[in-house]
Write a structure and sequence with these properties.
This protein has helices at 3-12, 30-50. By secondary structure, it is mainly α. Residues 29-53 are annotated as: Disordered.
């Protein structure tokens, strides 16, 4: 998120204080990669079982 975007978010906020914190991703973390794979497989199975439209 660029600084211009962060300024826009802070400027449009109805809050009196806005704090944006950077959280690094979990890429290449073995347990997280495995969980992502399982989540993806479950999503594909759910879509397949729901049928078209």
């Amino acid at each position: 998120m660029g600084s211009e975007t962060m300024d826009e978010v802070a400027g449009e906020s109805k809050l009196t204080k806005c704090q944006i914190i950077f959280m690094p991703g979990h890429a290449d973390v073995t347990g997280n990669e495995r969980a992502n794979r399982h989540t993806g497989m479950a999503a594909v199975k759910k879509r397949a079982s729901n049928g078209p439209g």
